[in-house]
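Re: the 418-residue chain
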Amino acid sequence: MKEFETIQLKKGVRLSLTLTDKFKTNYIGFTFHRPLSTKEVTVNSLLSAVITRGCKSYPETAELSKKFQELYGASLGVSARKNGESQLIHFGFEFASDKFIPSGEGLFESIAELAKELVFDHNKFNETYVEQEKENTRTLILSIFNDKRSYAQIRMIEEMCKGEAYGILDVGRIEDLPSINGDVLYNHYRDVVLTSPLDIFFMGNADKDKVIDIANELAQYVNVTEEYPGIEVKKTVEQVKTVVQQESIAQAKLSMGFRTKSSKQDGDHFALTVYNTILGGGPYSRLFNNVREKMSLCYHISSALDKNKGIMCINAGIECDKFEVTRDAILEQEKIVRTGAFTDEELASAKLCLIDSFRGTSDSQRRMENFCLAQLTSGEEEGLAEYIECIGSVTRDRVIQAAKDVELDTVYLLTKKD
């Protein structure tokens, strides 16, 4: 049974709600679905930041911050993140449950009114704030490029996914910033974002009818004409690409990209998740224990699986003269897991690690929202409890079957200059 109920409010607008008294706070989130593209990735990222700087009733950031404090320390989190080949523009409000504040104050209604102005009802954007957030975005992008561990994976994905939307960095592009001003941002907000599919998520202690009424009221501000973005899963690897980039660094960064050739919709992603965890999902993984601990070939190493896109990445920090031997050692460990030559203890430990992690999801409203969105966007039916059961039922044979088509696509090395 699902932990949340999903209601179609109108075309392109869904409300998912979980009524519970587990938390002292209530949470309501709004997620707009946009296709990830170079045309709008930067303006979407910038928009998520500018929108929260002020609104009609509180045009100054200081005034808005004061209002949140008056609402018993309510908070707002924003993001514009990659999900497969979509960009999710997200706004999440966390606020005290009405039962913990003086009676009759109607905090939920006050938050809903503020959400209406901040998310749905702007009529312009402050140019000063736009310029400030452009500079913040520029600084953020540069900081990512200066973090060589992150940069290596970004560059590997760019090389691996040339011609695919997945290769686009979701925080934006510095070269787009000069052409964006308040008018450009507002026109995109009005004509693009407010016509995009919207998911509303509520979790907390409130009357169900009140939640639905508030969601319906806010839904009237969008007129969805766009469809939910699709996703392309590449099924073939024509030739393994090796890219070497030289910079003035002391420690090399190795990033390797693999195609699983399946997505959450058409593969056994439960078994693939276990496969990834056995391989490089934590301190008990084969990559950590063998390539790092026993062979001493790297400073750090881990693997990560994107089940939506069908891509697995392995990232390691290595000595500059250890590229070939580390690459080969990684491929050997991947082959061991892919062919099922791991121990029963490794299988059990991986499943237990995943189950413990998913059990912790229900302790966080924001993590529950992310789980709900992941299920909705992939069309899956399992609730959290069922998801955990599915992980627990994964067998060695299922891991072998699910991972049999995993294939290396791209090897990227960031190393020192000769």
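The chain is about 40% helix and 20% strand.
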